[in-house]
Amino acid sequence: MSIKLSSGEEIPIEMHKTRMVQKIQLVPVEQRLKAIEEAGYNTFLLKTKDVFLDMLTDSGVNAMSDNQFAAMMRVDDAYAGSMTFYEFAKAVEDVLGYKHVMNVHQGRAAEHLLAKVYAKPGGVIPTNYHFTTTRAHIELQGMQVLEIYYDEALKTESSNPFKGCMDPQKLKNVIQKYGKDKIGFVRMEATTNLIGGQPFSMKNLKEIRQICTENGLLLVIDGSLISENAYLIMQREKGYENKTVAEIVKEMCSTADIYYMSGRKNTCVRGGCIATNNLKLFEQIQPWLPVYEGFFTYGGMSMREVGAMAVGMREMVDPELAGCSVEQIKYFVNKLSKAGIPVVTPPGGLACHLDAMKFLPHVPQPEYPAGALAAALFISSGIRSMERGTISVDRDPKTGKEIMADIELTRLALPRRVYSVSHIEYAIDRIKWLYAHRKLVKGLKFVSEPPVLRFFLGKLRALDNWGKDLTETFKKEMGQR
Ligand SMILES: Cc1ncc(COP(=O)(O)O)c(C=O)c1O
Predict the structure, then answer these.
(1) Per-residue model confidence as pLDDT tens digits over 269-304
(2) Which of 76, 116, 120, 132 is catalytic?
(3) What is the bridge-based pairing of β-strands 219-222 and 186-189?
(4) Cα–Cα dist 339/358, whole Å
(5) Cα(250)–Cα(60) distance, rounded to whole angstroms?
(6) Residue 338 Cα to ligand 1 middle (Å)
(7) C-alpha of residue 439 to centroid of ligand 1, in Å
């Protein structure tokens, strides 16, 4: 939640206390330069010993609760029939309202199974916006992802509260153009990851549900970030201001034929699940579970994680957890925005996103401004962020041609219950310093490039060795740290 100080300023306030800590260190700027050079200017390839604030992602790195740790200690460890799985299934029914659920080892495993089972060769999957792993699995099944958002979605600076909505008219046009038989399913991603953690509204979700019903299409919700979407509906959508996050999550879930999630985010564990109320659909997917994931009472997860996920499932609708990163992001984004730094607005869930094309307008898109900005931010602060731009889009597999991302974002994720306001203040300060010295930052060029999901393992180099110039200037003005 947030609290108003006597000065009138609103700050995010942590509704938890820290009872276990991990030491982190801020290494000197020269060591940061060496580290990013060794990592091929790819923040994924950094080692955590060189990272001060790890804002790469919120995935699998949230602080678990005392009750989750306790649950891990008392799980029923069995290959088959574990009662811990049934505790998890009960939590899913209570919180999401689904009777049938299967665990998978993480979100992309769910995407793999859904893309496989509902593949329509040569077909399409309409979505409000793709996620990297979702797209990879859909394309590996010979289908195409169609993004049918409102034009506003790609405007990085906006006051539209629901930039994650799907455009219903465009969905109707897609159905008309491709025909129902070519549509595997319609996918709604709650709090769209790649366009700045922007939510969709309940009204929009229901309109999309209606179109799916009229056309006999399956509606799939990717609920990896559903808590934040629900929290933002509560704050922004008329008619929902007096509803609880729990009620909103359940209402969202009631619209979907199939729900899946990465548990690494909202439930703060390393796992995932697929859930539905439709037994026929469940039975289409379940036979593949032991082939790719594991027996149905563990689905590729350790029983300890299943136990913690049972607790995390109930905790994820607690507004203190659902809103903790949202409130920190709001504080982070508003302060940067006030300082004239180009940042995605309105603030959403997941992360604070810098608009790299506006931050580094002199770096052309084929030289990867968002990747360059992530590397430059690491050099000048020790903060690890993530490129969410053209590096995160693979080349066209047929022509080898580069596909430019719709927007170039450098994402500073806020894992839940991990960082404090002073950490955010430090980040704001170093981002401002970098903005004042942005001319020193130039582009990047690939030196090794994997054919799929290249952003994970690809290596690049800094054009004109700009990392060295940035390091020298930082040292002169700020010292080693
Ligand atoms: C919206 C969304 N869907 C799916 C995934 C994939 O989940 P995982 O990383 O657990 O495989 C992610 C991960 O960040 C995500 O944000």
Answers:
(1) 999 999 999 999 999 999 999 999 999 999 999 999
(2) 132
(3) parallel
(4) 14
(5) 24
(6) 31
(7) 34
